[in-house]
Amino acid sequence: MSLDTxxxxxxxxxxxxxxxMEPRVHTLNGHIHSALAYSxxxxxxxEGDDACILVDTMTSMETAGLAATEFRKITDKPIKTIIYTHxxxxxxxxxxxxxxxxxxxxxxxxxIGQEELTDHVMRDVGLxxxxxxxxxxxxxxxxxxxxxxxxxxxxxxxxxxPGKRTFAPPTxxxxxxxxxxxxxxxxxxQLIPSETxxxxxxxxxxxxxxxxxxxxxxxxxxVYALRGTRFRNPMVWAQGVDRLREFGAEVLxxxxxxxxxxxxxxxxxxxxxxxxxxxxxxxxxxxxNKGYTPDEIKEIxxxxxxxxxxxxxxxxxxxxKHSIPAIFAGYLGxxxxxxxxxxxxxxxxxxxxxxxxxxxxxxxxxxxxxxxNGDDVQWxxxxxxxxxxMDRQDQEARAMKAEALRRWAxxxxxxxxxxxxxxxxxxxxxxxxxxxxxxVLGSPDQVRGFPLTNIMQVMTVRLIxxxxxxxxxxxxxxxxxxxxxxxxEIRSGVCQFYEIPPDERDATVNFxxxxxxKWIFGQTTFDESVAAGxxxxxxEAATVADFLDxxxxxxxxxxxxxxxx
Length: 565
Known about the structure:
The protein is an alpha+beta fold. 39% of the residues lie in helices and 16% in strands. The chain is built from 21 helices and 20 strands. The protein has a seven-stranded mixed β-sheet, covered by helices on one side. It has a six-stranded mixed β-sheet with strand order 8-9-10-11-12-13, covered by helices on one side. A hairpin with a 4-residue loop joins β3 (43-47) and β4 (52-55). The mean pLDDT is 94.
């Protein structure tokens, strides 16, 4: 899409930034083909003498299919090696658009990934998938129309749309460095902790080409992602960028953004990028050590002039203002020091009291309307939040807050802030289904490649503790076709996972992977499968049935409210 930089509903700098995200294949050195802007992430095909290396596989089968079609216009040489740079779903979810399951299974295609990659995938897809998936939907504006009153992009690339995701786990893993050769192309995959702990760069030593994954991208670094992340230590990231400098690359190929050529130009870019990360880190800690809170630090710290207007440091995805609270929490945790926050008045009760103190509901509505008309939309949103917290069903307050959020979002340069504001407005207007609306473990195509241990460990956070306070049962699970096993034990409201099954158990459940998929995705029940002979049990079936009844189903349907709360 092409955006009008004069549109009143899009920040002009964001419009200009997103207009650069036109889908195309950029070829370097005659045989390195980087697919830009077919999705929020790029992928790169490295063409060798008789075979190709593919680095990352994009967000979905649909977006990967677009890139695959373009690559096939360039070469029909087979892909023999796939490299995952890290675990994020936008880098690993379109594999089967490029190669088949059979090609992977029979060893025709190798998939290389850092040894912790699959565990990281499972954490996001399993342990916190319902809330993380919901929040990612807001960050990327995935239920918004693609136009100047909806999502205009992700900040790192074009608008991200829902699609079919697959996951083929690595067939070869490594700890720190992997060296290989495909089609006459020598390559190294090196662990470079930065945006993620498993982040890897791909180095082509004969050509001095460096594929930098997400260690550097065409936006201010996302030290914290609004969807939610573990602490991304800024100094680990800055040191990762320093590692990139050591390669002395003559061509830099990031997977969010555009290739850069020229050793001096690349080195200057990397210096500026790492300096921006360290600057926010150091200045946050400087004022933390003076006793300032995150909100106070955000008002004090500003980027220095040499970095503020840097073309690779625009706040279109990451933002130093939303990085500061994450850095604070990474070092000190959530508690800012005022005991008023240790056991506060419950939200709804606090809102009721504040509304009374401010003169009542009608007075707040009038003040909010006045603020909106005066373009003080931030204050309007803050005022109206008290009314929504007091009564989530107050439709007038919700509608007014939605309008204020839309106006606020239209003024944001940061794409993720914009998307979140517009998604929140949609929720407040009642135009967004609040059900989790999905499987805790993603899709069958994703789960098929997960180890049994990763799948069953998710059940620990699905335990209904109030229903299992008097339950004490240990069950071992065994897959008969893949020879995997693990165990779960309910112990008075807590579920412990055992990667290696203990000898003592109350029952053992034997099944094949086909049953596991059907059971997870609600295509069969435990009782049906026992009756059909698809499960065999060493022990009492009633014991296992009672055990499984203590867990919430994998298909979560509860509402998840983000803004209407």
